[in-house]
Structure formats: C-alpha cells, structure tokens
Amino acid sequence: MNPGITGVPRIAVLALQGGVAEHVEMLRELGAEPVPVRSAAALSSGPWHGVVLPGGESSTMDRLLRRFRMRDPLAELITSGVPVLATCAGLILLAERIEDPAPGQTSLGVLPVTVRRNAFGRQVDSSREEVSTAFGKVDAAFIRAPEVTAVGGDVRVIARRGSSPQGAGAVVAVATDQVIGMSFHPELTHDLTLHSEFVRRAHRQRHA
Amino acid sequence: MTDSTATTGSPLVKRGLAEMLKGGVIMDVVTAEQAKIAEDAGAVAVMALDRVPADIRAQGGVARMSDPDLIDGIVEAVSIPVMAKARIGHFVEAQILQELGVDYIDESEVLSPADYVNHIDKHSFTVPFVCGATNLGEALRRLAEGAAMIRSKGEAGTGDVSEATKHIRTIRKQIADLQATLRSNPDELFVAAKELQAPYEIVREVAETGKLPVVLFTAGGVATPADAAMMMQLGADGVFVGSGIFKSGNPAQRAEAIVAATAQYDDPAAVTAASRGLGDAMVGINVADLPAPHRLAERGW
Q1: Distance CA B28, CA B45 (A)
Q2: For residue B288, is it within any domain?
Q3: Domain count, chain B
Q4: What is the span of the domain harbouring residue B120?
Q5: Among A7, A59, A74, B141, whose CB has the most other CB atoms within 10 angstroms?
Q6: Distance between terminal CA atoms of chain B?
Q7: If you compute the radius of gyration of chain B from its CA atoms, what whole number of angstroms results?
Q8: What digits encode the pLDDT tens for the residues A167-191?
Q9: Nearest Cβ partner of A144 from B1, B5, B81?
C-alpha cells in the first residue's frame, strides 16, 4: 500500500529504547499508522504526519540518536512542522535546555522550554494521579518524572501538578500548535485524551 | 481513578519504571566511577553491588547486600535509575535498600540466600522488585509475591550465554504452550497452573495475553554485543550485563557497543559494526565445567 494515498496518518515512533509498544497500540486504536523507527534509514522513509518521542531514559536515547546519526534528521523533521507528541524522556529530548543533564547529554533543542530531570524524586516517589489539562482530565503515571521550569516563545502551559492549569503547581505539560509535551505517562494508563488531540493534528497535517 | 490524590507504590507505578527501561541495558557496577562509565555508555540503569558475579564465584564466601555507603556513592554519582541486590528472602536488606532510595531491588540468586523457603513479600514495599526465573512457573510465583519485573537467570559470572538462552527459550515456549492449551482445551489450564505451581489467575492471564504482565529482561552470561542482540531476538525486553563489561579489556567501549547492539538488535549490519574492535571479552567459564553446587541459577524456587 502506498503510504501517500491512504487515509491514515503515518506516525514515526522513535523506538531506540523505552515505552514504545504502549504508544504504538494507542495510535493504532485511534486509527493512525504507527511505525517504530530505530535507524536513520527508517527515519528517512517518510512521508510522516506526526512524530512520537516516547518515555525511557533520556540520556540513553540522546546517546543512541547521535551514534546512529539520527539526531540531525530528527531535529529537521520536527523543525519542518509535523505534529509531535512527547512523553517524559521525549519531552527532555525536545527541550532547548536541560537544567541537570547527565555528563555530555544533549537534546534536540527544538522546543523553547527548560526541563529539570527527576524533579519529583526517585522511584519510591513515582505515582499515579489525575491531571487537569487544557484538553481534559488525564489519568497519568509520573515515573521519575521531569518538570518544566521555564517556557518561552509560543509555548503554553497546559497542565500543572496537583492543581488547575492556572494554579501554582509544577508545570507538567506544555503545548504549541505543533507540539504536545508532558512529563507524565498517559500511555501507561492507556488514557487517550492527549493522543486523540495529537492524532487529530496528524490528520490535519496529512491534508495540508 | 476515583479521586485526585496521588498513589505511590501501586503495581502500575512499580511496573511502569521497568516499562521505561525496555530496549535498554542494565549494567553491574561496584564503584561510583564504574557507574559513571556505564551512564556515559548509555546504560538505562545500573545495578550496585560490591563484587561482580565473576568475583563472587572466584572468591567464594557468603555474598550479601552492599555497604550502604557504597550504594549512596553510586546513587549520588549518576542520574539514571539505580538498582541494588538483596539476598533471597532477606526482607531487612530490602528495607535498608528502600531506605537508601534505590529505584529497584533485585532479589538475587547471585547473593547467598538468606531463606531457603520463603522469598520476600514484595507487596509490602513501595520500591519495586525484579526477580530471577529459570522457567515460567518460577516467574509467576515471583509475580504472585509482588515482583514488578522478571529477568531470566542465566548463569551469572560465567560469560557463557548458554543458560540465558535456555531460560528465555523455556519461558517463551511455556507461554506458547499455555496459549495453545487455552485455544484447544481451556479446562486444562487448571492442571497447567498446578504443574507450573503458580496461581490460576496469573496463568490464565498469561494464556490470554501471550506474555508476562511485566517486563522480561535476560541476564547471566551476556558478554558481547552479539550475545545481547541474540537475547533481544529471542524475545527479551532488555538485557542485564554483569561481569561482561568490567571484566573485559575495554569496559567503556564494550558497554557502548552492547547498548548499540541491543537497540538495533535485528539489523545484522549494525550488530556487526558494534562488534568490531572491542579488545578482549571476559575470559569466562563454560557452564558445563561448573560443578552443580556452584550453579547460581539453582538458587531460588
């Protein structure tokens, strides 16, 4: 089947490491065509109507992106304007600035936010809780989660921890018209709220 | 969810961290310096212990949980998750490790068992546990006790991957057998549960889903990028490497190569590239030459 002529948006799911299968399953359920991408060759097999950067270990993914020469083409793909959904480590990859990188850790630097890794403590502090976002309530798992400590450009805060988007809690989700990034994992609880918005955007991208 | 209060230590939260480690390599380290080398090489987590299995094997004696100061030093040194080992059944070592803030406890046969009857009641902890298994029944018994991640045992400290191969193949085959039983004679699942010596409800779940309800890594004898890629092709979610890295000639380079081969395990050209120029692998011991009392995989039940 020629991907260019189907009615289904094709989503590149970065699959070097981490919680990939959960995103793949949810994107299928929402009628998109997820494609796990583990090499530069796979990344160049567009067209892509969306990109998902999953959770995992951000320092590992960063190292592998550079080793496999995927970093620059991935940054270019995102800069070209395709919709992006990023969870946890994926959000760290997007960030312009990481407050506390592992030694030598870099990011794609394509979203004007600052993040702090493991901002809420170690695994014993990991938790499941409801988060109110601008797109609806989300049943979210926070696993050694980062927080967003500064936003710039056209980035909007869409969720704070333990309160409304307008409240004073730590920023745990942000969005632009292109990107939805969150420090938690809706894919671990199979909450489709934010993925649905992402797939709507991917459909629009396909028709653009 | 019925309210907005946060829930820590639930099965979903405990299993969730392991889900985020998938496709990665967890490396044994005995010093903060080794932990930094592992992090630089792209490890998704480190396992803190005071002797790697090859040295435990060579030196003999009782192997116990590491000194808390050593674990603190490793926790301070890296930003990736830190795991640490407790003896089988030693729930107080586990309490100490939880107190120290480690991210996962490995109730491990590599250490000397503290209880030859009971494993730790892992439900009573907030910190998650990973446990070893040589077959499906053993894996499911550990899940019933609250384990949030399983690793096939292999034979630690040997550099011989044959036992790891046997254990992952065994677990996968037993899962396939359960699926076949569910399709043909579902009423035989009760006997299957009896034979596996595991709770019926978990046996039924595995038969229906065709996989464990938690992440399954392999361990024990992985020493090369090709070993790691083989484990992944056999269906592992990720790989533990113990003595294989820091008992080799060039640990940093070998660690990085094993990470790369684990990520691109199904691409022979990539695994070939990762295998080049790594210097000496750990010398190792053939499992067949190990007298039965020295086989660690037989600890735990």
Answers
A1: 9
A2: no
A3: 1
A4: 11-162+213-276
A5: A59
A6: 36
A7: 19
A8: 679 999 999 999 999 999 999 999 9
A9: B81
